[in-house]
Structures are given as C-alpha cells and as structure tokens.
UniProtKB/TrEMBL annotation:
Compartments reported by the entry: Cytoplasm, Cytosol
Similarity comment text for this entry: Belongs to the dienelactone hydrolase family.
Gene name per UniProt: Cmbl_1
Transmembrane segments: none
Coiled-coil positions: none
UniProt keyword list: Cytoplasm
Primary localization class, coarse: cytoplasm
Name assigned to this protein: Carboxymethylenebutenolidase homolog
One Gene Ontology cellular component annotation held by this UniProt entry: cytosol
Amino acid sequence: MANESRPCPCDIGDRFDYGGRGQEVQVGHIKAYVCKPSASTDKAVIVIHDIFGWQLPNTRYIADMLTTNGYIAICPDFFVGQEAWKPSNDWASFNDWVKTRDAGKIDKEVDVVLKYLKDQCGAEKIGVIGFCWGGAAVQHLMLKNPHLKTGVSLYGVISRFEDKHSLLHPTFFIFGEKDNIIPLEQVTLLEQKLKQNCKVDYEVKIYPGQTHGFVHRKREDINPQDKPFIEEGRKDMINWLNKYI
C-alpha cells in the first residue's frame, strides 16, 4: 500500500505465546473470540484484527487487556472464513489477496456483531479498535456507522480512506514515527484534512522511534527500548475508550 515492490511489508513481529482468557463463539455467519469481565457491564469494544487474522494470539492478548479494564471485548473473523495472511506468503501476491478482503466492506459483519453484543451481552455503549488493516476499517466505521461511540485506529493504512475525513465519532489515531508502511507525510496530510473537515473530537499521535505494529506486535520484555512506547500506546488507547464509552 505504501511501496510498490512490497505494498504492505508487515512483519508479524513477536508472535505472543498466549492462549487467551475468552472463548470462540459463532456470531451469525462468522466466528468470533469473546472475552467478558467478571462484573457485568454495558460497555463493549469490537477489536478488528490485522492481516494476520482473528486468531493471532497478540490480538487476543489486547482483547483480554480490554476486558481487564472493564469492557466486553469481541474479535470477529472479518475475513469471514478466508485465510489470514501468512508470513511465508509471497508479498507479490498481496494486492490480489487484499482485494478479496476489503476493510471498507465489513458493514454486514459489524451489524451482526452489534446485534450480538446488544442482544446476548447486554452492551449498550460500544466502541471499536483496529490494527493496520483493522485500523483502516476503524476509520471506515467512524465515517459511517451511527451505532458506535468512538474508535481507535492503530497504524491504520491511511491511503485506504485518504479523501474521507468527516468523522461521525471521536477517533484516536496512533502511528509510529518509523513506520515504513505509513510515511509521516501521509500522517501530516491526515491531520490537515481532519482539521479542515472534522467536526468531532479527534487526536493524531506519533510515537517516537516506533515501527509498524508496535502496540500489539512487539513484546516489551524483549524490546526494552520500545517498552515505554508500547505501554504508552496501550494506555492512551484505554484512556480514549474510557473517555467516550
């Protein structure tokens, strides 16, 4: 998406050895990972996975982190049964692969998930977060879905929605300074367009020295120089959700 020879050179990073505290359920026509806090709540967050899919342990780790902060967390399979990207796949085939997995065409799945959260989980206030591919999906949803309260887009691929900035809900954008997929010029342009067109609260934050995927695809124990920014990104995400849900 950013560079022609390797359009989305996502490194899977540190694959967490993590089993998850939640369970897999069937939600309409898709599967989903769901984790609930011990105390009942009417607050929920939809977690939109990256290209590595809904079963990536790293993404479930973040979903469970949301649960420890008092939210029902659900990570649906937005690829609807299609295979997630594998690190061993040929990047030359990425453009064809991603065309069949459009981050702007998840509305049917989101509607099913929203109904499940309301009917089965008692959720009334619902937000969304997403990583990379999922970050672009968050921007899409913030532009059009009236049923969500807020969103956090973590290194969402800007070029996917670069001409659309009239957000309906408060949105927080997280980027890494050294992200080789999302150049800082794109981030600067996003900020300019939001300033001109956006009528709701938003924030764009760049984390020094960080690369693509740093919030969920780096382990702080083996990336000590990145640990403060990994923790800051996660804390900022939680604080934003707490403010608007």
